[in-house]
Write a structure and sequence with these properties.
Elements (H helix, E strand, L loop, with lengths): L4 H11 L2 H13 L3 H10 L35 E3 L17 E3 L17 E3 L106
Parallel strand pairs: 1-2, 2-3
């Protein structure tokens, strides 16, 4: 007799205890099959099963986590190399001290997330939501957050050389002491942003909105630019 998916799901529910099912889901997630684990959890009516999960100092290299609800989860000190988090919900998540290498955050929601001291290399995140997130002291070299929402973000003392923030919303962002040397902020909204002590040498600011920005004598501007 050929087993249909609904029949197989029913057999799993009836033959395994709730604790055993949870253990299988956690194991799938920890071995890089997060999206599959969440699909199974949802089919078993374990909705938002991975929200608030805690995996500290874990290696997620190559994992598939697209569209997952990982809000308020703790992934501090973990490694995300070649990971897809496209469209994932990481609202208020703890990603402090994480390593992101060629990670895809396109369309992901990281509003209110803690990313202090995160180290990122060639991370992409078009249309990413980082509103009110804390990236203080992070390394974001060569990241691409085109069209992202970074309203109110804290990027103080970040190393964001050559970051791409084309058409991004950085209204009221804290960029004090940040190194944005060689970045592309063309068309970005920087109104109300604090650029005190910010290194903007070589930055492209074509069509950028700079209303009511804050800066001081330590702010370094692109050659020939007068604020």
């Amino acid at each position: 007799m050929k087993l249909t998916k609904p029949t197989l799901k029913q057999i799993i529910k009836e033959s395994l205890s709730n604790q055993e099912i949870d253990a299988i889901l956690y194991d799938l997630f920890s071995t890089g099959n997060g999206a599959q684990a969440e699909a199974i959890a949802t089919s078993l009516k374990k909705n938002n099963f991975f929200a608030g999960i805690e995996f500290v100092n874990h290696d997620f290299s190559g994992a598939e986590m697209s569209l997952m609800n990982l809000s308020k989860s703790n992934f501090s000190l973990s490694i995300f190399s070649g990971v897809s988090l496209r469209g994932a919900d990481l609202t208020d998540a703890d990603l402090r001290g994480t390593f992101l290498i060629r990670t895809d955050l396109s369309g992901a929601n990281l509003s209110g997330a803690m990313l202090n001291r995160m180290k990122s290399n060639r991370t992409i995140g078009s249309a990413i939501n980082l509103q009110n997130a804390n990236l203080s002291g992070a390394s974001l070299m060569d990241a691409d957050f085109k069209g992202g929402n970074l309203k109110g973000v804290n990027m103080s003392n970040t190393n964001a050389k050559k970051i791409k923030l084309v058409l991004a919303n950085l209204k009221n962002a804290n960029l004090t002491g940040a190194n944005l040397r060689g970045a592309n902020l063309s068309g970005a909204n920087l109104s109300g942003a604090d650029l005190s002590g910010c290194n903007l040498t070589g930055v492209r600011l074509r069509f950028a909105k700079l209303d009511n920005i804050k800066y001081n004598e330590s702010t370094r501007w692109p050659k020939g630019f007068t604020p």
